[in-house]
Design a protein that fits this description.
The chain is mostly helical and 47 residues long.
Length: 47
């Protein structure tokens, strides 16, 4: 499913490098989708 603007923003923030306060590219994407599946973040995918 495509991401909403909110989802794109959150994913971009998580994928920033560690020095910028993110998780890094690979880990950031992993954390984003795990958080989404767990239900921690909502409204990130278009239906």
């Amino acid at each position: 499913m495509p991401l909403t603007p909110k989802g794109k923003k959150i994913k971009a923030e998580m994928m920033k490098s560690k020095s910028e306060g993110g998780y890094g590219k690979k880990k950031g994407e992993e954390v984003f989708y795990k958080s989404q599946n767990k239900g921690t973040i909502k409204g990130t995918h278009k239906k």
